[in-house]
Amino acid sequence: MIGSLVHFFRNLRAGWVLAREGALALVDPNFLPPAARLSLRFARIIERRGLGDGAARLSVALTRLGPSYVKFGQFLATRPDIVGVAAARDLEQLQDRMPPFPREQAVRVIEAALGRPVDELFLEFSEPIAAASIAQVHKARITTPEGEEIVAVKVVRPGVREGFARDLQAMRAAARLFERVVPDARRLKPMEVVETLARSVAIEMDLRLEAAAMSELAENTKDDADFRVPSPEWTLTARDVLTTTWIDGIRLNDIAAIEKAGLDRVVLARTVLQSFLRHAIRDGFFHADMHPGNLFVDAKGRLVAVDFGIMGRLGMKERRFLAEILLGFIRRDYRRVAEVHFEAGYVPPHHSVEDFAQALRAIGEPIHDRRADEISMAKLLTLLFEITALFDMATRTELVMLQKTMVVVEGVARNLDPKLDMWTTSEPVVREWMERHLGPIGRIEQAGQGIWTLAGFAATLPDLALRAGRVLAQVEDVTAKGVALTDESLDAIGRAKARGNRWGTVALWIIAASLIMLLFGGF
Q: CATH number of the domain at 97-246, please?
């Protein structure tokens, strides 16, 4: 109870800051039940006047609440199914920029993590050049067998883990309350959203895992001539420190610099889209934060990605799903797209395939009446997820992350080439994967994997039979003799019950006192 009360006041403070800074203006009241609409109207009474647009308001509010909420805002930008398309678009503009912490603190973190003085590790170590909610980056020089090399050193912000742990507990409490108060929201899985954020943040705060993600992506793309990633310096990497090769390149949103360098924007736009699709469909492992700040083009015209804290992963089932629906829309085969949803188990079987195919036609046909450069693949997927809600399709977190990443990728590609034909550009990647995995060679490989799996299961049958026998004997023993409770066990149960009653009474008194203070404070 005490913990619940603490979480309540933390969430109350967060709600106050969001309301005060005008962030609640982003909430569309049309999608709220009457009681929630009334609460929203009252909450906006305390809103400060003369504020900026939605994105500016939200940015100020989340920055005031601290790094955890900035990261949460960025994460919600990947979930338009929860916050709505307009709010997600505003959240995309939220920049994870925090004041840097002093170089001296970064030095202490590095020395504690690597066990040696910074002067022995680096020839030079700069002041911070960029700072975010979880870490900041420094530029440094090291000695390698090939000579001196410039590197980027990422250092975790001191105290960030403790702050995130506190805020995530409050977010979990808010998600549980949301599920109870708004039963229809369970389809959106708010608790799963918070847990996904918690896992994502835990991975981001262990820089060894980011180095591993970088290494895995590099291995997957080693034969891709138009894409590369930096390499981690493993001897200078630990949980709180990540050292990588330095990237010299032009940011993809610097169109003037790209043109001045004589790089082909049309080719580069195609590379952005096809690289993302190859990573998602071919490898099942993709960069899930491909905004222009994380993408560069080097002197050879190669696309270079940085910052691998947020990655997406798709299993074979999800990759097949994505490939088949994209190819189905390209071919206008709505029946097949509908069947794929049912085969994957995403749409409950009590619905009609024909009715679902008809709904998909309402999405697909309008795009075929427009010019290729006007068709948005990302918008199509957004509409698809809206339609699937009518057919009780549960939210698939990995697919929503994929869809949101595709929105960002499409925006980056179209900024380079406004006339980019998304379908013609994506079809070779999708078709190649389909032919490889669903053609004769793929079928043979799947059959071989199935035989190998059955052989492995058969080898475990004797051990499983022995375990089943032991469990059955234990069940029969409990059935015959019952479960014995000693005097000590009964006393312990009684003491635990008494403690629970005492703490419950104390908590009720605290809540009552708090309400009295709030009431008298309002007069």
A: 3.30.200.20
